[in-house]
Automatic annotation (TrEMBL):
<keyword id="KW-0460">Magnesium</keyword>
<keyword id="KW-0328">Glycosyltransferase</keyword>
<feature type="binding site">
    <location>
        <position position="103"/>
    </location>
    <ligand>
        <name>5-phospho-alpha-D-ribose 1-diphosphate</name>
    </ligand>
</feature>
<dbReference type="GO" id="GO:0004845">
    <property type="term" value="F:uracil phosphoribosyltransferase activity"/>
</dbReference>
<feature type="binding site">
    <location>
        <position position="202"/>
    </location>
    <ligand>
        <name>5-phospho-alpha-D-ribose 1-diphosphate</name>
    </ligand>
</feature>
<comment type="similarity">
    <text>Belongs to the UPRTase family.</text>
</comment>
<feature type="domain" description="Phosphoribosyltransferase">
    <location>
        <begin position="5"/>
        <end position="209"/>
    </location>
</feature>
<feature type="binding site">
    <location>
        <begin position="201"/>
        <end position="203"/>
    </location>
    <ligand>
        <name>uracil</name>
    </ligand>
</feature>
<comment type="pathway">
    <text>Pyrimidine metabolism; UMP biosynthesis via salvage pathway; UMP from uracil: step 1/1.</text>
</comment>
<keyword id="KW-0808">Transferase</keyword>
<keyword id="KW-0547">Nucleotide-binding</keyword>
<feature type="binding site">
    <location>
        <begin position="130"/>
        <end position="138"/>
    </location>
    <ligand>
        <name>5-phospho-alpha-D-ribose 1-diphosphate</name>
    </ligand>
</feature>
<keyword id="KW-0342">GTP-binding</keyword>
<dbReference type="InterPro" id="IPR050054">
    <property type="entry name" value="UPRTase/APRTase"/>
</dbReference>
<dbReference type="Pfam" id="PF14681">
    <property type="entry name" value="UPRTase"/>
</dbReference>
<dbReference type="InterPro" id="IPR005765">
    <property type="entry name" value="UPRT"/>
</dbReference>
<keyword id="KW-0021">Allosteric enzyme</keyword>
Length: 211
């Protein structure tokens, strides 16, 4: 597994505002969208392309275009949905799937409650979107889910990660396939309730309110 921490002043600035407990939901949603677009630039660095010939106003030249089969962007519901537009802004030709997972607050294990994914992901570059990598259970379950459908090239995009979650993910993934983790920052630790410290709170609640 490869870890990439986006070390950029704009990333750090937007993340600082997101951490502020007084940042209102509309501003929070806007900043998540902007921050994910910056992370998407790093996450798509190795996206597969193929040669493509075009005519310019003066001659013919060969450039590149996103290769088939098209990449698949998969937000993990519900919080990952707030990251979708920021990702597809940079990858407008990608297809979008959905994976509904939530953490059991007692066992801390991920429970799948919905999915809308192709049965066969062979040859697809899959981008998983989840704001917080805390215990690692949800992301490991999501990666296993797409592995079972044939995906072998997976990039996870998160706003924050805890060292404990990264360690769990590394152990679970091993060298089975090519998995990359792109984050805005790696925080200090998890607290006794498995929340990231200093973190930014519950990303889903801050995006959409408590439902």
């Amino acid at each position: 597994m490869r870890l990439h921490v986006a070390d950029h002043p704009l990333v750090a600035h937007k993340l600082t505002v997101l951490r502020n407990k007084d940042t209102a939901s509309p501003t929070f949603r806007l900043l998540v969208d902007e921050l994910v677009t910056l992370l998407a630039y790093e996450a798509t660095r190795d996206v597969r392309v193929e040669p493509h010939e075009v005519e310019t106003p003066v001659t013919t030249t060969v450039g590149v275009r996103i290769a088939e089969p098209r990449p698949l962007v998969v937000p993990i519901l519900r919080a990952g949905l707030g990251m979708l537009e920021g990702m597809t802004r940079l990858l407008p030709t990608a297809e979008v799937g959905f994976l509904g997972m939530q953490r059991d607050e007692e066992t801390l294990e991920a429970v799948t409650y919905a999915n809308r994914l192709p049965d066969d992901l062979t040859g697809r570059h899959v981008f998983l979107l989840d704001p917080m990598l805390a215990t690692g259970g949800t992301l490991v379950a999501a990666i296993d889910y797409v592995f079972e459908r044939g995906a072998r090239d997976v990039t996870a995009v998160c706003l924050l990660a805890a060292p404990e979650g990264i360690e769990v993910l590394e152990k679970a993934v091993g060298d089975r396939v090519d998995v990359q983790l792109v984050v805005a920052a790696v925080d200090e630790r998890l607290d006794e309730k498995a929340y990231i410290v200093p973190g930014l709170g519950d990303a889903g609640d801050r995006l959409y309110g408590v439902v």
